[in-house]
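Hey, I'm writing a tutorial for new members on how sequence and structure tokens pair up, and I'd like a real worked example in the thread rather than a made-up one. If someone can provide the structure for the chain below, I'll link this post from the tutorial.
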Amino acid sequence: MPVINRVAEFHQEITAWRRDFHANPELLYDVHRTAGKVEEMLKSFGVDEIKTGLGRTGVVGIINGRSTKSGKVIGLRADMDALPITENTGKPYASTIPGKMHACGHDGHTAMLLGAAKYLAETRNFDGTVALIFQPAEEGGGGGDAMVKDGLMEKFGIEEVYGMHNFPGIPVGEFGIREGGIMAATDVFSIDIEGVGGHAALPHLAVDPIVTAAQMISGLQTLVSRNVDPVKSAVLSVTVIKAGEANNVIPRTAKITGTVRTLDEDVRDLMEQRLNDFVPQFAKSYGASASMTYRRGYPVTVNAPQQALFAGDVAALVAGDERVNRNVNPTMGGEDFSYMLQARPGAYILVGQGDTAGLHDDKYDFNDEIIPIGVSYWIKLAETAMPAAE
């Protein structure tokens, strides 16, 4: 595997950065220590410009090539935030902050992009400009959207933007990418059911919202199986149900909440509409009433065709063509890099994490073995997208 020799030389240094981030996790936009370390390191590498506070706590580092005659600017993005999970790995560098851990590998993403920054600032073997994007609040906070709304693309003239995520289950040394939707839209719904409360021994005098909710949950599953084209993807999961306080009382209300995941905007629209149609009518058939709130979360992460092809070619330079799956199965997890891909064409690639605990698991740990692979990908992407003039 042609990992760049210089990158292999400072593998252990990058690993130390990664483990420091791992031991000091921060949530959402409150990534002040992490962002501060990123800024400090970028300065030490001698990057040309650093912008802080973009999207509240985001950091952007600018590296110009030996020449910028091409005028091209590409963005490379890493996320910095952790998750509200208590770590259970037992590692010597485990989280030092109770209830917070890097359970998704953003510590590794940040460290790998810093490794690429160090190399690119040293060599500058490209014609154009690289914008290194360190983003807060990917885990539910919409930091990608915040950075875009703060003028990320316009301030730096970014023309294309690329993201990368480790992925357990893909072998180390392999990549996965696809054109089109690779990560799902992440919408949530909340249903409030109102019946008539009463004594549990006299159900005929009440309208039981728990019975209505139980039957409704079964009915909700048909919205996918009987409304969505079978060759397309959608997931509807009920994740919370709340009702009642005593074993001898039929309550007046019940509440259902859940999530809808889709890979196509038309299917997304269909699911929202069918939920709005279904919920009140179903409740009415049981003598109850129901109202629904549907909130759209992150949009579908859509890889542009040309950039997905290019990213796959770059991955092949690192891993070999036979180790790049160019039609990887999409995942129904969400990603706010989607907002950046709405603003500019680009691609999001998965890098193999190997056979490890899954993402968002309290036993997950980023695999330091893949650091040279990810760093080499970033470097090759910049140098191939903007080849230096001979």
